[in-house]
Design goal:
Length: 401
């Protein structure tokens, strides 16, 4: 028997850990139930930190961890899924392809930044979505120091006033001061089509966010969008032209395109609709998790978000349940009633909220310490020690806040 997990992100990593944990509990040998994780590299990209400087350092190796729990790493990119034959086709090294049969499939392919057909976006826009994107932005920012000083050089426009856009924007002043000097006349502008900043955060936290933006001198243009980009700057839907040499796109996410190969219903973000066991109901033997799945967190209408916080726990339930079906034991319905947010606000601190109503618990420096602990400790993989690694993947305990 074989479980194939597509993706080495937070959901894929915890799916592998949790499946291996249940296999171990049931006393089943790895040669009787193989767990294979497919990814281009055996590396976790610490994606929630990609707005920070030095993004090339924001990865964690998984090879030793996977070996310690007897999970087979398959190097390559999953390109095709045949759900009738239960086979995944993988693009491997030097253009070769191989087929990997499965008994259960866990789709943990993650998400991608939504890039609409805005003129000039592909040529002139940057992002902090994937590791390569963040590295390209970091290289560009450092390259600004070799350009003549000008308003355009010193101006950054961030398209998107949600969680990612705010974290990227509030980090920019400190990053550019280190590159261009503390006396550089910097300008950062957040552009968002919504009428308020951070629309998903709600009214409670918003005054803290607005005050942080004022403290950092960050401007907003709300109720408008980016109409076009070129090398001289951006034109807004209002007609305003902002001269700038840096545009960071942070406006929305979509599930990875691979999910479209599963013949099942999806939501407006491309996520596969799953049942409480994270099973894709209409396709035999397929589970979806993390950003690839639309899953109910509770019985009162809350659904998992495209976030590390939800992906880790969802991954643990999906991996457990895929293994449970093959081993003939009871599955565990996914649930995640606890929900917190911790929004980095750069030199203005951070903001910590609890619950779906986003009740503010901490702000400023004390919240910043929590954010730093989350970013540097909590979201990293467990150590490559078999017993401890397997114990960390109990679905009921993963991300139990």
């Amino acid at each position: 028997m074989r479980i194939v997990i597509i993706g080495a992100g937070f959901a894929g990593m915890y799916a592998a850990l949790s499946a291996a944990r249940l296999r171990d509990i049931q006393g089943v040998l790895p040669n009787k139930l193989e767990i294979a994780l497919v990814a281009p590299e055996p590396t976790l990209v610490v994606r929630p930190r990609l707005y920070e400087p030095n993004p090339a350092t924001l990865t964690a190796p998984l090879q030793d961890l996977l070996k310690s729990i007897d999970v087979v790493y398959v190097k390559g990119r999953a390109e095709a899924i045949d759900t009738k034959s239960k086979v995944v086709e993988i693009a491997a090294a030097q253009g070769t392809h191989k087929k990997l049969p499965y008994d259960r499939l866990v789709v943990a392919a993650g998400s991608r930044l939504f890039r609409p057909n805005v003129p000039g976006l592909a040529e002139h826009g940057f992002s902090v979505d994937q590791l390569d994107d963040a590295i390209a932005l970091d290289r560009h920012l450092h390259g600004l120091s070799s350009r003549p000083a000008s308003k355009a050089r010193n101006t950054v426009v961030v398209a998107g006033g949600g969680f990612t856009g705010i974290e990227a924007a509030t980090e920019v002043p400190a990053r550019l001061c280190k590159i261009l000097g503390k006396d550089a006349q910097l300008r950062v502008v957040i552009v968002d089509r919504n009428e308020v900043i951070a629309p998903d955060m709600g009214a409670g936290p918003r005054p803290i966010i607005e005050e942080a933006l004022r403290k950092l001198g960050i401007e907003t243009r709300l109720g408008v969008g980016v109409a076009s980009l070129d090398k001289s700057g951006v034109k807004l839907s209002s007609g305003e032209q902002i001269e700038c040499e840096t545009v960071i796109w942070a406006a929305g996410m979509r599930a990875a395109p691979l999910t479209a190969q599963i013949p099942a219903e999806r939501d407006q973000f491309g996520r596969l609709l799953v049942d409480r066991d994270l099973r894709v109901p209409s396709v035999t033997g397929v589970f979806a998790t993390g950003d690839a799945a639309r899953a109910a967190c509770d019985d009162v209408g809350n659904y998992a978000l495209m976030s590390c916080q939800h992906a880790t726990r969802m991954g643990a339930f999906a991996g457990n349940n895929a293994a449970a079906e093959l081993l003939g034991v009871a599955t565990r319905p996914y649930h995640q009633k606890a929900y917190v947010t911790c929004l980095d606000l750069g030199d203005a601190g951070a903001l910590f909220t609890r619950g779906w109503e986003r009740a503010v618990e901490m702000a400023g420096d004390v919240a910043k310490k929590t954010k730093q602990e989350i970013n540097t400790v909590w979201i990293y993989p467990p150590k490559a020690e078999r017993a401890a690694a397997l114990a960390s993947a109990d679905p009921e305990r993963v991300t139990a806040l």
